[in-house]
Amino acid sequence: MTADLATAPRPAAPASSAATVLEFAGVTKRFGGARRGTTPFTAVSQLSFDVRAGEFVSIVGPSGCGKSTVLNLVAGLDRPSEGAIRLSGAEVAGPNMQVGFMLQKDLLLPWRTILRNVEFGLEARPIGREERRQRALRELDRCRLADFANHYPFQLSGGMRQRAALARTLAIQPDVVLLDEPFSALDAQTKLLLQRSFAQTIHASGVTTLLITHDLAEATAMSDRILVMSERPGRIVEEIAVDLPYRDDPIARQGTPRAREIIAHLFQSLHLAEREA
Ligand SMILES: Nc1ncnc2c1ncn2[C@@H]1O[C@H](COP(=O)(O)OP(=O)(O)OP(=O)(O)O)[C@@H](O)[C@H]1O
Ligand SMILES: [Mg+2]
What domains are there in the chain, each with its CATH number? Predict the structure, then answer.
């Protein structure tokens, strides 16, 4: 596999000249303090980073350091206390339709078929019925679920449901896809296969992606770049460029010596050896 890597290099990351899609400029988020008796606390502090078009960036960090808060801010579900977030050049001022958000739980509607679930995200848009159907079918095909279009969520495995949720997320053609631990509820084997499936689909669609994960091997195997956050208040303490090919094949990537080096480095960086659960 290593020889294979050496002889068949594929681009590891989009050209650094690609346009910035997402930008955090000095973002701090505080919670609490508005009601009497509540003490304000800072969840994340002075976050500055950007994500370029087509890039896949992961954020790792200890539990409670503000990773999900970062995604909520991008989605406009929360507002920064300080600083600004720009998406495709415009400041994020509230919930918006340019963001595709996917969580650990698939949130598919149990009474709709998979096809109708994928169409659901498009129903709020000015898109005709026929185009809606075509787009949904195209995404299902890309996520290799075309044969299951008329099945209901309960008829699918956990991994297939997550793929359907990704199809729904991509169908809206978002400027950025936000993934909050999408594989953490799955068994180890399904997780590996799904990581590869997501990596291929995301690579093929070229969509800009921000992934939150606790899994250091996953971050290394799937991303172009990893941002490491500190304990609360979360700050970015390190940024690692994953200089490896095969972004569309995490299983191949994970086995390379360089990937193992990066994982070991992340392990150190997060002080995992010294920490207690
Ligand atoms: N809407 C909110 N109101 C008050 N506090 C909040 C709110 N959202 C998050 N917090 C707090 O902000 C901190 C960061 O939470 P967040 O969920 O972003 O962490 P996380 O890094 O995603 O954690 P985990 O790895 O466990 O998912 C936590 O202390 C959390 O309790
Ligand atoms: Mg979280």
Answer: 13-90+209-277 (3.40.50.300)
Alpha-carbon distance of 124 to 172, in angstroms, equals 10
Q: What is the pLDDT of residues 199-215, one digit of tens each?
A: 999 999 999 999 999 99
Prediction pTM value:
0.91
Whether 39 lines ligand 1, by a CB cut-off of 6 Å, is no
Instruction: Please give the span between the terminal C-alpha atoms of the chain, in angstroms, as a whole number.
Output: 35
Atom of ligand 1 nearest to the CA of 181: 27
Q: Which amino acid is at 232?
A: R
Sheet of 82-87, strand order:
41-52, 20-31, 82-87, 90-91
Residue 272's pLDDT is 73
Does 166 sit in the ligand 1 pocket, CB within 6 Å? no
CA distances from 86 to 38, 57, 83, 94, 194 (A): 30, 16, 10, 12, 30
Sheet containing 99-102: order of strands: 99-102, 176-180, 208-212, 56-60, 225-229, 236-241
Atom 5, ligand 1: residue with shortest CA distance = 31
Pairing label, strands 82-87, 99-102: unpaired
The residue whose CA is least distant from atom 11 of ligand 1 is 43
pLDDT surpassing 90 at residue 99: yes
Ligand 1 proximity of 43 Cβ (cutoff 6 Å): yes
* Amino acid present at 197: S
- C-alpha R_g of the chain: 19
Closest residue (by CA) to atom 6 of ligand 1?
Answer: 31
Q: Determine phi and psi for 268, rounding to 5 degrees.
A: -65, -45
Using an 8 Å Cβ cutoff, are 25 and 86 in contact? yes
| pLDDT band per the 50, 70, 90 thresholds, residue 277 | low
